[in-house]
Design goal:
The chain is an alpha+beta fold. The protein has helices at 12-19, 31-39, 100-116, 133-136, 157-162, 166-177, 191-204, 215-224, 270-283, 301-307, 325-334, 343-347, and strands at residues 2-7, 44-52, 55-65, 80-83, 92-93, 119-125, 141-152, 181-184, 228-236, 239-249, 252-260, 288-292, 312-322. The model has no long low-confidence stretch (mean pLDDT 93).
Length: 355
């Protein structure tokens, strides 16, 4: 029996129960995290759940009004496009191996429902550790958008550290000689200071407005994310140098948000932070410590910093699907975008949101 249901945040219990039936998922797939995104105006959270016999596929998306795009106030009326939450989401399934007939029926059902909802395009960041491309093959394009880095915690601590760069090894040693310490702040005593430190970091790197999460966002994140959220901070002479939020889910530890005081940049205390966290994670029986990649998937200074901790690399993919090509072209023309010759719109998806 074929069955497609759409869950909203109001269906929190069923959403959570459905995701936990999947063979692998991350906190990015859970309703609490989607509620945070919806609260920031990133879109209306939906979980599309397709069932057929014992097989299940679930796809979380945020639906956004096209008419909110400048220049498309009239042309975009009653139209939507879909995106994913910040991080690594995409579809999840109940079985590793899925029948071809199930995949085709899932795709047909999703397309039929999205057309019914007037959804023009779908964009989703995918998860480096969850097989997803086969389920999406044939609907849109899955493209490589960058590389992420992880530490294999199944290796011994010595084997893990052997993959550190010379600079990272010496950096950790120097910090320890200075009597710097990194602590697991289980009582969140440094939480408010961590938020101030995060904003200081965003100012230093001239981050986009999106990354200036409100203080209430951090507070809700701690309360609403259904899995374990941990704060680690590094101190020198009882002064906070840096800190980071980490989320444990299904044998994966994700490095989420972090920052560092400007005055401590030269001694790079985040080297000690990551080193301490990976030792703690190993003790917890976690298998993968995912550091992530550079900003926007680029091989920037953030990527280079993370690459000094491990030789393990993963392709970071994104999924781009034009559900309704006719309306998509109409919207692009409404923004005077030449899809064949405009290089800016070619790299941005959907193109009508590029400018």
């Amino acid at each position: 029996m074929k069955d497609l249901k759409i869950l909203r945040y109001e269906n929190t219990a069923l959403w959570k129960k459905t995701i936990k039936e999947m063979i692998r998922y991350d906190f990015y797939h859970l309703p609490g995290y989607h509620s945070l995104a919806e609260g920031r105006g990133e879109g209306i959270a939906h979980l599309y759940v397709y069932r057929e016999k014992e097989y299940i596929a679930a796809l979380p998306l945020l639906l956004r009004k096209v008419q909110n795009v400048p220049g498309l106030e009239k042309a975009g009326k009653d139209l939507w496009d879909a995106t994913s939450v910040y991080g690594y989401a995409g579809p999840v399934t109940s079985h590793k191996n899925l029948p071809e007939s199930f995949i085709l029926n899932f795709q047909d059902s999703i397309k039929e429902e999205l057309i019914k909802q007037n959804v023009i395009t779908v964009f989703s960041r995918l998860h480096p550790f969850i097989p997803q491309t086969k389920l999406l093959q044939g609907i849109g394009k899955v493209v490589t958008a960058g590389i992420t880095i992880s530490i294999d915690l199944t290796l011994s601590l010595e084997e893990q550290r052997s993959q550190y760069s010379k600079g990272h090894k010496s950096g950790v040693n120097k910090l320890k000689k200075l009597n710097a310490v990194c602590i697991h702040d289980e009582r969140l005593e440094y939480f408010d200071e961590f938020i101030d430190l995060y904003y200081e970091t965003m100012n230093r790197v001239t981050a986009k407005n999106y990354y200036y999460f409100e203080k209430s966002y951090f507070e809700k994140f701690i309360r609403q994310v259904e899995d374990e959220v941990h704060l680690f901070v590094c101190l020198l002479d009882n002064k906070m140098m840096c800190g980071g939020l980490y989320v444990k889910c299904n044998n994966i530890l994700q490095s989420f948000l972090g920052g560092m005081r400007d005055e401590f940049r030269k001694i790079s205390p985040r080297k000690l932070e990551k080193d301490t966290v990976r030792i703690w994670a190993k003790e917890q029986g976690i298998q993968i410590f995912h550091l992530g990649g550079g900003v926007g998937g680029k091989k920037d200074s953030l990527y280079e910093f993370k690459s000094g901790f491990s030789k393990v690399r993963h392709d970071f993919h994104v999924w781009k699907w034009i559900v309704n090509p006719v309306l998509y072209e109409k919207l692009c023309k409404g923004k005077y975008i030449d899809l064949e010759n405009n290089t800016d719109s070619a790299s941005y998806f959907p193109a009508y949101r590029a400018i």
